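We were asked to recover a plausible sequence for a given structure. The inputs and outputs are reproduced exactly as logged, with field labels preserved.

PROBLEM: sequence recovery
POSITIONS: 369
GIVEN STRUCTURE:
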């Protein structure tokens, strides 16, 4: 074993140690994370991205050469599980996972030929990393290129899931500012960028256009760092509002108008009875559970009959309640805004004025009719 502590050793050890941060965060919040099991698997395997570098740095490749390239597939494993975790964080019905687990199995199988190489050949490749000679080592380069493509694809899928959720969040959540996933979105953009960077780096090295002798170590450290940051964002403290809706059904449904009117009537009675409009963080599921109706039914009823999403539907009651408080009591606007979950006093004032004007126009139209 080499006793000299070089920058290489420090870089590897430091990258391994920072994985303690997401590990402790996941441990503390295990019971409140809908994706806790998947998160722990990601965090457990994360440090193994650097397994080959640890073996090389501390001279263990001669004692255990069979371990070299055993964990090449780990970036794909974590990318897939991060995507599945995000689906669990966003949707009540996250969809089937079997095809995605099949992708992990496929990449694990793809690294088997490398595991079967003689020990001397594996040690030689570890001591003098490949640069160029793409046609002689196309399987090696091909595997790493496919891994980077998988990382890009699954980070893009994760971004699409978060974007779709944010686009439709007003259909099932009132106080949307309480349910932010911006940090996850940012880290997924970072992962996407790293995946693209790794892809082109491998191409340049494979064709000997940029002879970077330590490219494998650089790639491993990049993956380990970005995945650690991703996992920190995945297990940070946040509120969850799992979407109970199938977005396609919002546009195409088979409910009759009479049924939707009945659903809306039940929802309105429940809202008034339980004063649900006063609850901060109110979700569609909260109303449908007490009204004994299906979430998709209420979402469609509000859209079809009232031409409002769920958020606007509840805002109607909140603004009526705010009008009652402001006209019949001496309570301050700032207090009302805070009590009802409005972003600020100015926001409540602006939206309240708009609401009064709209209601005034509605009354005028009814009088003319």
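RECOVERED SEQUENCE:
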């Amino acid at each position: 074993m080499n006793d000299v502590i070089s920058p290489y050793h420090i870089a590897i050890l430091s990258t391994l140690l920072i994985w303690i941060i997401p590990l402790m965060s996941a441990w503390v919040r295990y019971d409140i994370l809908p994706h806790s099991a998947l998160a722990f698997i990601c965090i457990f395997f994360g440090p193994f991205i650097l397994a080959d570098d640890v073996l090389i740095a501390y001279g263990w490749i001669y004692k255990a050469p069979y371990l070299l390239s055993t964990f090449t597939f780990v970036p794909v494993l974590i990318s897939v599980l991060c995507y599945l975790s995000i689906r669990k964080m966003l949707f009540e019905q996250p969809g089937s996972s079997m095809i995605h687990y099949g992708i992990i199995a496929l990449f694990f199988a793809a690294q088997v030929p490398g595991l079967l190489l003689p020990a001397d050949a594996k040690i030689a490749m570890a001591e003098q990393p490949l640069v160029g000679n793409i046609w002689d080592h196309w399987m090696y380069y091909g595997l790493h290129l496919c891994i980077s493509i998988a990382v890009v694809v699954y980070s893009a899928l994760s971004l699409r899931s978060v974007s779709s959720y944010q686009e439709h969040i007003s259909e099932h959540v009132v106080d949307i500012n309480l349910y932010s996933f911006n940090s996850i979105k940012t880290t997924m953009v970072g992962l996407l960028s790293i995946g693209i960077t790794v892809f082109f780096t491998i191409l340049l090295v494979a064709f000997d256009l940029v002879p970077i002798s330590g490219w494998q170590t650089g790639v491993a450290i990049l993956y380990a760092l970005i995945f650690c940051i991703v996992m920190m964002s995945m297990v940070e403290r946040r509120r969850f509002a799992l979407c109970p809706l199938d977005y396609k059904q919002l546009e195409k449904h088979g409910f009759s108008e009479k049924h939707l009117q009945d659903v809306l009537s039940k929802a309105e009675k429940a809202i008034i009875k339980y004063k649900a409009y006063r609850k901060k963080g109110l979700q569609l599921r909260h109303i449908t559970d007490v009204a004994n109706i299906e979430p998709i039914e209420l979402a469609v009823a509000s859209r079809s009959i009232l031409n409002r999403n769920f958020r606007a539907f509840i805002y109607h009651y909140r603004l009526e309640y705010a009008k009652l408080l402001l006209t019949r009591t001496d309570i301050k606007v700032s207090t009302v805004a805070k009590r009802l979950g409005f972003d600020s006093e100015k926001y409540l004032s602006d939206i309240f004025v708009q609401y009064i004007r709209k209601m005034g126009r509605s009354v005028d139209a009814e009088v003319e009719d």
